[in-house]
## 1
Amino acid sequence: MPLYMCNSAKGTIDDAAKPKIAADITRIHCDVTGAPPQFVHAFFVEDSPAQPLGDKSAMLFGSIRSGRTDAQKAQIIEEMQASIQTHTGLSRDEIGMITADVPASWVLEGGEIMPEPGEEAEWLAKHGHHAPAE
Amino acid sequence: MIPCNCVVQEGQIPDDTAAALRASISEFTERAFGAPAEFSWLAVPERSGFTASAPSTSSIISLRAPRAVSLSEREPLLRELCGIWTDHTKCSLNEIVGVISDPVAE
């Protein structure tokens, strides 16, 4: 967690663009929230009924830990939409994004309940990782 | 029925393993919440899943409890759920994200 699930119309996002967008998603999430990259998942699917596209060509659904501010969420949305636009050529109007807050205590990752935002360093140390410099 | 959303990497879990996994998870939800699981199973295509910007081997299992669950109850349930996943798939605990959410507030 976070999990960023990008659903798009078939053929909209090619295989060359996916790792670039995933790298941007990871960087943006970490830059905005201070979270370490180990937690960031970015998955791409096509025409998935589980994540409706509505009138968009691409929709990014971000499940993020509760505790992020409205300003952080707005920045995440703005910058991730821009990344998808850059790497696909879609117009901004064709790209949608929403986020959903998930309490950290609802999530087990790496065999442990996820840390609350800002408490990641101790969690990572316990799992043999080192938090990156922020 | 207990809604249970699974996201896996395509080709990572053989069909027979997935079937046995779903059966064990449904037994788990019967024990924990008194109802079988109703699955949404999504396979992320090859070259389409990334964790920390690298190709992902991670799976996500997310189920919605029919009632509010305290942390003292939720944590052992999550451990059991993720344990079922690792037992069947032989993945590591670092490759499974388990979520048990409370019901949506009316």
Note: The domain at 21-101 of chain B is CATH 3.30.429 (Macrophage Migration Inhibitory Factor).
## 2
Amino acid sequence: MSDNNRFAQFKLVLLGESAVGKSSIVHRFVKNTFDNMRESTIGAAFLTQTITLPESNTTIKFEIWDTAGQERYKSLAPMYYRNANAALCVYDITSRSSFNKAQDWIKELKKQAPEGIVICLVGNKLDLENEREVDQQEVIEYVQELNQENDNVILSECSAKNGEGVLDIFNKIGRALPVEEVINGANNRSRQVGSRKPGVNLSRQQNQPQSSNCC
Amino acid sequence: MSNMNLTVNHNRSESGYSNNYSLLEMYGASDEEDKEEIDDHHQFDNVMEEIRANSLSSFVTPLNSQTIPKILSSDYDRYGFKKASLHQTITRKEYNEWFTDYSEYSLERMKKWKDLVNSSGIKYDDIPTRFPPKSDKTKKLIRRGIPSEWRGNAWFFYAGGYERLNKHVGVYDKIVKDTIGVKNKDTEAIERDLNRTFPDNIHFNNLPKDSKSVKDPKDIQDNDINNKPMIKSLRRVLVAFSHYQPQIGYCQSLNFLAGLLLLFMNEERAFWMLVILTERILPKVHSRDLDGVHIDQGVLMLCFKEYIPQLWNILGKNFEGEVISEDKILTKLPPVTLVTSSWFMSVFVGIIPIEAVLRIWDILWYEGSKTLFRFSLTICKYCLDNKTFKAKNDNDSGNTEFEQIEIFQFMQSYPKSLIDPNKIVDLCFKKIGGYGFGSISQDEINKCRIFVSKQRDKMKKKSLITNISEDERKMLNNDEIHDIYGFNRSIMNGVKWNNNISNKMKKRFSRKTSK
């Protein structure tokens, strides 16, 4: 690993109604596979995947928390998005109600999640375009309105089934994450590891009580 | 009130909890029936026919000299699960290697069970419906595994299924009738999960072969026509359950529990087993606020701390890497509970290979909820003892969330590779060569549950646990939080919740508070 290859690690959570395809997006991203019938996620699943942003020569490792979508699991949600650097709020473009749910999640995150969390609103199942219930224009307007209030919600559509747009989501998020701050040590949530050899001192001094939010 | 009424009491009345289906109501409701349309009657008759058609079939391939080679050459196991893809960590070859030995073991077990049943004077044709009374000998046999051909009946017998069924003759059919065509939030959620329940099992999923035979476009439009009888059974059981237990409704994970039961018994029995499980073994775990999840995870964490302190030192930390102090265990469950809570909710289905799940279920129905804690501890300790786990924690840096997630990932993937159920059972119970978790008693778990539940009630009474925002919380200093959550010396001293653990806790507390 050359000196100018930079490395940072971030926590990313997936939120959204059940069966919108959260796990499918993750599996497309992490394993590049897709199952037509995927078992419902109970509790949470933990995965990691790395991307490289060539323009800044930065490697970003995503620590992915995939969560169960059913309403009642919400009581566990604060544990999920606590300290999260990024959140995917996923909806199914063929389901109006799932879009409403994704909006609820965005509201919830703005109230409860760490300040500066990168939020990406993701419409999945793009392969079912002819069954679309959620109009793209409407989503764009919704996000524009959000972003007027100094928010920076990223908008994306994808198909976990055929892979379209999935990697793009994570690249966009990678570019929006405060990589510089992390690498310069200004952030004590995510840190530069520099080299991933074991035994490297992982900046113990950063384990201060009640770390501040990420930016 | 409901919070105090912790359902560890095995004799708790059902009527306060469930939709009350009294016999009177069932047979006296002629007015309502008059209003029903003829269509509904037809529909009901059809449904009843479907239920009857399914009711005799157990989906387990019996083991004998003819079937064993067939199972070995198949892509699917004797329950219809795909050998290789369900748990991607085990290959078909590994499965067959294991099954070659285990099928012999299972045949030998069958002989032992036949001996015990015969010597207990129980007569039966094919599969017994009654089983030997509880005894040390029976318990020993249960722990070594019930033959799969007998599992459904044995589970039902030892879980107290007959008592339920006999008290509620015809109730299941009545609920099914009542819920025909019902649509609500629960049924919506059920629909979404039906085809996401055991997609790798031939009894649940339509293989491409089957769907080819459906040619009429009208049929294709009607989604249900493509569904296997098992999916229809699963729908009926889950809908009936959500109607009968409105405090629970439908909770994701019940689909896997009902699904597994349906491989071993008919709908009506599966329904009552689900009722027994959610009332008596996992109270409130599936309820709308998942209260029981928080309680049981609190209990499990106290067990970690007590019985696997090395593991607690690694995982009993908050996201900032600070060890969670005793008084805060229950207010802020450590992140590892995000891994272990699903073990309870789905009773290990999907967590470990299927045969190991079945072996734990054998013990669970016979011995009760302590089984869940015993095996959760076993699996965690086994993870801890693994080299990979040690390596992940080697540099003593398992202090931050990023190191923790590596450990979580390991704790999620490693159990899926534990193909030998005898190994897990031996580890759990053996005092020499195992962890000896058989010493954890039901009484201890019950007391622990009551303790944790009471503590949570105290927090709730202050109504701050859910309403307080993170900012408000920050504004309070630590001592105040201490008070708000009800963890202070007087409360701790006032509760005698566990002889094994409480004394230690008290000592630590008095030391701390007297400083």
Note: Chain B has 28 helices and no strands.
## 3
Amino acid sequence: MSESSAADILARAQSEIVACQTPEQVEAFRIQYLGKKGIVTAMLKGLADVAPDQRKVIGQQANELRSQIESLLTDKQAALGGARSKSPITIDYTLPGKRYPNGKLHPITQTLNEITDIFHGMGFEIALGPEVETEHYNFGSLNFPPDHPARDMQDTFYISKDLLLRTHTSPIQVREFEKKKPPVRIIAPGRTYRQEAISARSYCVFHQVEGFYVDRDVTFADLKGVINAFAQTYFGSDVKMRWRPSFFPFTEPSAEVDISCFLCGGKGCRICKHEGWLEILGCGMIDPNVFAAVNYDPEEYSGYAFGMGIERIAMLRHQIDDIRLFFENDLRFLNQF
Amino acid sequence: MQISYNWLRELVEFDIDPHQLAIKLTSIGTAVESVESLAANLDNVVIGKIVACDPHPGKDNLKICKVELGRDIQMTVVCGAPNVRIGMKAPLALPGAVLSGNVTVQSIEKFGVVSEGVLCSQAELGLSDDHSGLMEIDPAIKSGADLKTALNLEDHILSFDLTPNRADCLSAIGIAREISALTGSPIKRPSVEIKEAAEQAATQVEIGIEDTEGCPRYAARLIRGIKVGRSPWWIQQRLLTSGIRCINNIVDITNFVMLECGQPLHAFDFDNFSQPKVVVKRARAGEMFTTLDGVQRKLSDDVLLITDGNGPVAIGGIMGGQFSEVSDKTVNILLESAYFNSSIIRRGRKHLGLTSEAQTRFERGADPNVVLFALDRAASLMEKYAGGKVSAGTVDCYPNKIEPLKLELRPSRVNQLLKTEMSSPTMIDILKGLEFKVTPGKNVTVEIPTFRPDITREIDLIEEIARVYGYDRIPVAMRAGGNLVVARSVTEIFTQCLKQAMIGQGYYEIVTNSIGDPKLISLVDPDAKAVEIVNPISEDLKWLRPSLLPGLLGVVSQNVSHQVRTVKVFEVGTVMAARTDEAPIESQRIGLAISGTDSGENWAFHPQEFGLHDLQGVLDTIEELLRFKLQITPSKIPIFDQSCSFDITTDGTNVGRCGKVAATILRAFSIKSDVYLMEMDFDQLAERSSGYGTYVSLPRFPAIERDIAVVIDEAVQSGSIVKVINQAADENLRKVIVWDVYRGKQVPVGKKSVAYRLIFQNESKTLTDGEIDNVFNKIVDSLKGELGAELRS
């Protein structure tokens, strides 16, 4: 192929384009020159066979020819106002972006992840336990005497005389103590069950996170340290803490911990029921009877344990007023988090 | 439990306002739930004496009363109360007063007579729910006096939310003791004086206990000649502020004493006993008994009975009998003060499904040694306010005296566990404040009063010290210590990655109830071995889920009903399979459901109906995460449409199932659109997860692509085409991509065109066209020969 032939092709194309009067004729012109088997296409494909020293020059010519013919086409199409004409387009920058929407993690998972991450960062290992438990692990080993009113604090679903749905994640303490020697520092999330009527405030299934640490010389002050650190990490460094004595069979001394309401700063509002305080968890020093059940010497070791309801924390954080929403899984709800 | 602030002030001296008191009590573990002003709305209510009471000419059941407020003031009031009569004193609400229900009193014409105020019942004043008639005011109180001041109604009610271990706080004295521990001022117990009659009680009644374990102590007094009537106002007021209904002076006094010192009492009409005898014993199973609330109850041997030797007169510690109850006609009473064992009361309560104020106190643990104080206190009040003659002596059956426990406390242990620097005397003061008897020493010896059955070990004493000392005063420490190796398990990492991948593809995570409806579960999995709850909250929440699918379908159903166009949800959760005589098998599964159209509502995409290939997309994602292959093969799973039902396997192991939900199932869940489901055994996937990938060096020579489109019978699966391609190719074929599937004008009916991009690459050289043509031609020949495919170009 020579220089003159590229010029010839262009000249022929220039005369032919003038003759095109309809969009169909323009299309035929396009196919003739730029189609799969068109003249210019063939020229470009043929480059492979050209001697390497000429390839660059001829390649340039062919590309130039293609753009010249393209501009002939564009002009003609614009003149005819045909389907292929490119009138200038204004970018509509107000249109929504083009994307496949994400899904979301369930707010319970989000809350659980954030809580376990905080404790993981403080040196807590993660452990899990079964949801169907024995009387022994759920109650007996946790110092709930038989026929004791403490058992009524936790209405229980039974699946047989000895098997039940765990009412708390605390059995994981005993299961881990049986497996390990101190030091043991664990965070244990999981699903728990209470035989309670379903309402805006309670659901038969819910989630807890249990944390515990056993070692030599673990003190109540360490418990305060870790819980305060958690609360300030999760709820903000300016929250105030209130520690109230309470009762759990498996801890002694026991406490319930409140934080100052993060919505009103403690002045009193709807969320904190005008008390200024929000209860976030229960905790205490592990009762010596729990240690006795797993052959830890309570004179040598001491430890703390704490537990919190994930739904409750999520409800506080997101100001959700009905626990059932978590289990209904309405996408309009899930989409909000 | 509710106790009034003024009552507490009578029992212990302190100078703390009600709201501060609530905060302080809560801070030592005696949780106050609320503080309410008793008489916030009792302004403009005075005491009036009714001096005239005439029928209303305009209305039969109304009276026109003249009410005197002091010497010179009289007002006309129209009143319809049944007990209104000349000479009585009653509360008169004057215009401006606000009555219960937020009614403001006005001077108003009633059937032609102007009523200048309202004569009030207790209910109208918001003091109780008694609206049976006008509130009777002690005639000794001066007419015209302000009601609030005259009746000492400027008071606050503290409602307590006590933990079950603190039985000792279920009384005014119990709470006063907590205040005493806080403030250091001693408790002022009421003094008791009885003028006993000559008759010896012991000669009149005999007491025997058959079950001394269930009832370690039973004491009684005999009181004769009582007059049943109304209690004095101060006793009524104590009961009202504690939320207990007033019945009559005898019952009210037993309740008052219980509220005061925590010991439940029971008064029997002694004349209804068949013989002068009390025998405490277990009921026979199946025995029937009518309690004083009129309900006939079937007993069991978990129920303790008080009998007169012939038949039962009360259920011990829980509720009296109808037959022996004190009535208006009662003259002689046997007053019981007993100590029952908490477990028998608990078992009896569970059997009967019956709770009472007495039962709560016994079940949580009463004090065996307050029995006589309570008995004497009640007897003295009955003598004073019911005109009773108390027979001499107490009949007290207490075969094995319960002695206070003695414990050793190591002060060093207290400080060790709390990280405090408390002195021994500080600890001793705290314990003394709680009425513990303390003998100082290197180790402190502490005698635990019997009203604290919850204190049995040194650690319990440490808690007492800690709570009164104040949790806020315990220092805050932060130390790492222990083991700082906190590796995350492969499962944990895989779970997080998988969930992130799912949401990245537009799936919403859901969390559904793991307790489900047997009907729906067996519909979805007819062969499921579900675990059944013995005591479900309802019939449709009775089985533990053996699969995630019913929950997923429920969520699809609910969302589709809200006109959601795209439902893409997944759940990772525990399922259970029952085993005989063993704990169920728990395993984790991942399930997902899709329904509607993909790409939701974005203008840039054309929505397509979901199909099987969307599920396969998820499988591909999981494959990528796990770095191993998952296959699906047709199967006949009942829940799925039989044309689209698949097992998911890896290395020949079944790990799940997926498909299009059958129409019958959709109907059961009221779903009108198609739904595709997938469920896999999460544990099996996680087990195979290799954790972290290993680097493979990047190719140094270019890849070469060739496209090939084959026209082939509709029935031929792409998988077999790819297999033929791979078999025909050499090791340089690195990847086969399906990039188009076409059915339409240019393809004959019954055929489809599938286009593949073949990617060739070699690690050590650039492949030449000739090398590739060679392989490519072999591939084409195989496709033609083995599958009868035609090339489309």
Note: Residues 200 and 323 of chain A are 5 Å apart (CA to CA).
